[in-house]
Amino acid sequence: MDFTSIVITVGIGVSIYGWRRYIAGGWCCSQARLDGKTVIVTGSNTGIGKETAREFAKRGAKVILGCRNISKAQAAADDIKKSTSNDKVLVYQLDLSSLAAVKNFAERIIKGEERLDVLVNNAATAQAHRLETNDGLEMVIGTNHFGHFLLTNLLLDLLKKSSPSRIVTVSSDGYQWARRGIKFDDIHLKQNFTGFVAYGQSKLANILFTIELCRRLQGTRITANVLHPGAIRTDIIDHFVHHAFPLPFITIPIFQCMMWIFGKTVVQGAQTSIYCAVEESIATTSGVYFKDCAPTKLQDFAQDEKAAKRLWELSAEAVGLEKKLV
Ligand SMILES: NC(=O)c1ccc[n+]([C@@H]2O[C@H](COP(=O)([O-])OP(=O)(O)OC[C@H]3O[C@@H](n4cnc5c(N)ncnc54)[C@H](OP(=O)(O)O)[C@@H]3O)[C@@H](O)[C@H]2O)c1
Predict the structure, then answer these.
(1) Ligand 1 binding pocket includes 61 (Cβ within 6 Å)
(2) Residue 323: what pLDDT?
(3) C-alpha 236 to ligand 1 mean position (Å)
(4) Measured from the CB, is residue 97 less than 6 Å from ligand 1?
């Protein structure tokens, strides 16, 4: 190899390294331990949720994986136990698209656990075509918002009992696909469904839910924050691209290439969730949208307190919350 080739090769290597470092975004540098604490991460058998759960286990927590597929979740739990030498990693079945299943999961937690220090509402689905849950809710908002809305409300007493405690909800900058706001006159998108709007609306609902939850939790020592993890190549994206675009044999390789250039790894993608759950300097921060382990500004329509209240009332009715919990 001549000198010019060496310079070009090193230059390319350094540029790729620099780019990857830039794309990696923020990193949770907190050394906080979680010994004696109990955390729940929904949808933690894979992707960002699994890496979030792994980090909690590394820090000594008792980690509950709330997942719909028990065998996939058990494999994840075994992998986490092996890599962290923490045996307190449990699998509980949780299908967020079923209100009855959410209630069963919450009952099991309330009966079996003495405390709950961190709840990470991480699970999500994205669908290219309209589906309904067994409860008659549109599948994407039914899983991503209504399921977590009910779960959080049912676990609030335990979170209060264990306070200071934290609720962390994983949203997405994709909330901007719903820039006209929540479709209150057709929230289940019966009249006009597109996969982007359905996902965007559900992620906007995660944000508005957190804003109203934070307001209702004032005076308690429970914080509620919401975040965008970055762009990461995980199952949810592969599934969506596969079903939403024509010619998947062309679009998928193009997409994979783009994600390789512009995407974070799953460990990098988990950093903001971990940060919101453990970082000491934000122990009393609540109602904030984070990205790359730092607060970030939301578009005006995602800070609409009236819409947040309206969504809360609508959600409480839709999931059949029997009493006002907060
Ligand atoms: N990847 C990205 O670029 C990106 C960007 C912005 C925001 N996010 C957000 O990050 C979070 C994690 O997503 P990810 O990228 O890590 O995707 P992922 O790897 O597909 O993980 C999603 C998890 O949610 C679970 N899930 C789906 N439907 C469920 C249901 N009905 N009940 C219980 N669990 C269910 C999945 O379980 P199964 O394995 O059984 O399907 C899986 O464990 C999501 O909230 C997503 O919106 C991701």
Answers:
(1) no
(2) 61
(3) 6
(4) yes
- Which residues constitute the domain of residue 37? 23-319
Catalytic-residue membership of 275? no
Q: Which two tokens stand for residue 18?
A: 């620099």
* Catalytic option among 17, 175, 199, 275: 199
What is the arrangement of strands in the sheet containing 62-67, beginning at the earlier edge strand?
A: 89-93, 62-67, 38-42, 118-121, 165-170, 222-228, 289-291, 294-295
| CATH code of the domain in which 305 resides | 3.40.50.720
Measure 170 CA to ligand 1 centroid, in angstroms: 9
The number of folded domains in the chain is 1
5 belongs to a structural domain: no
Euclidean distance between CA atoms 275 and 233, whole angstroms: 21
Query: What pLDDT digit, counting tens, does each position of 279-307 carry?
Result: 999 999 999 999 999 999 999 999 999 99
In a domain, 18, yes or no: no
Q: With contact defined as beta carbons under 8 Å apart, do 116 and 162 qualify? A: yes
324 assigned to some structural domain? no
Ligand 1: which of 201, 236, 259 to mutate, most ligand atoms within 8 Å of CB? 236
Among residues 232, 170, 246, the alpha carbon closest in space to that of 207 is found at 170
Q: Residue with the nearest Cα to atom 25 of ligand 1?
A: 43
Phi/psi at 222 (5° precision): -110, 130
pLDDT digits (tens, 9 = 90+) for 32-77: 999 999 999 999 999 999 999 999 999 999 999 999 999 999 999 9
* Confidence grade of residue 325 (pLDDT, cut at 50, 70, 90): low
Whether residue 7 lies inside any domain: the answer is: no
The answer to whether the CB of 142 is under 6 A from ligand 1 is no
